[in-house]
Design goal:
This protein has about 325 residues and is an alpha/beta fold. The mean pLDDT is about 95. Its cofactor is pyridoxal 5'-phosphate.
Length: about 325
């Protein structure tokens, strides 16, 4: 049993009931469209509307008494900051969230509503991330990385534990990838719980830093373009622990363009009447792209979040019509 799996197992036992066990919902309509038996892992129904609450809750749970008094700092395009803000609020831990000026105002307003302090930095996301870590160190605050932290990864890995318990026969799990924390956790759980399940990493073609780093065998910079999948946008910090984990657990990859992401978001809304954000659309678009390889067999798609401005969602659906 590897150390990360043990951390995931500990989190899986310790985080209830604060962290919800989200449904794994069979979708007859999406199954008919793809030819696969499609199950949707409903992380958009998790507290804060995103899987990020899992990793944040686990990190806050493991803080020592001194750190709890001082508070924590983090960086986020929205969902991770929202998860840390709520986890901190529930534990009485002060939270400061550093965010890019390009971050969704819907998400930043929700972070503030949980009592966290938001500091906006006008720079690309990776630069914001590195500056936030420097500022946290200067202030003597523990820094909660969105992905480069074993405690956060272990919290996200509880998704994998639930998948294995909810449907032991899954042949593949499709998940969107940004910094790699979620897929590293899911993959590490399933390689122990269900080693025959293939992990499919899905990226927006406009934001593929970790994908290119996996190809290079080291963290590399890669040009970022605008994407509706703001939850996966941004580079990967040097030395990120997610690179070797992702290389180990990801069995197949999919790169999807913006039109495919928007079409997937629309198909989910038509099939299930759910609003999901761009990052969830990325995973669904990955399945549409690779469905032929899994025809007739059970697969899961992780719908990682729902935090999107209504006008943006409606515009995406309109463009995909």
């Amino acid at each position: 049993m590897n150390d990360l799996y043990q951390y995931i197992l500990d989190a899986h036992r310790a985080l209830r009931p604060q962290v919800a066990v989200t449904p794994l919902s069979h979708s007859p309509a999406l199954s008919a469209l793809t030819g696969c038996e499609v199950y949707l892992k409903c992380e958009h129904l998790q507290h804060t509307g995103s899987f990020k609450f899992r990793g944040a809750s686990n990190k806050i749970r493991l803080l020592d008494a001194a750190s709890r008094r001082l508070g924590v700092a983090t960086v986020s395009s929205g969902n991770h900051g929202l998860g840390v803000a709520l986890a901190g609020k529930l534990a009485g831990v002060p939270v400061t969230v550093y965010a890019s000026a390009a971050a969704s105002e819907v998400k930043l307003d929700a972070i503030r509503a949980h009592g966290a302090k938001v500091v906006v930095i006008d720079a690309p996301m990776l630069e914001v991330e590195l500056e936030a870590a420097r500022l946290a160190e200067r202030a003597g605050l523990p820094f909660v990385s969105p992905y480069n932290d074993v405690d956060v990864i272990a919290g996200q890995g509880t998704i994998g534990m639930e998948l294995a318990e909810q449907h032991p026969g899954l042949v593949a799990v499709f998940a969107s990838v940004g910094g790699g924390g979620m897929i590293s956790g899911i993959g590490s759980a399933l390689e122990m719980m269900s080693p025959s399940t293939e992990i499919v990493g899905c990226w927006p073609r406009h934001s593929q830093a970790l994908y290119q780093s996996m190809l290079a065998g080291e963290i590399v910079e890669y040009e970022e373009l605008d994407t509706i999948s703001d939850g996966t946008a941004g580079g990967v910090e040097p030395g990120a622990i997610t690179l070797p984990i992702a290389q180990r657990v990801i069995g197949k990859t999919a790169l999807v363009d913006e039109a495919a992401i928007k079409a997937a978001m629309r198909k989910i809304a038509e099939a299930e009447r759910w609003i999901v954000e761009g990052a969830a659309g990325v995973a669904m678009a990955g399945l549409f792209q690779l469905a032929e390889a899994y025809r007739g067999r059970p697969v899961a798609v992780v719908l990682c979040g729902r935090n999107i401005k209504l006008e943006t969602f409606l515009e995406a659906c309109h463009e995909a019509a």
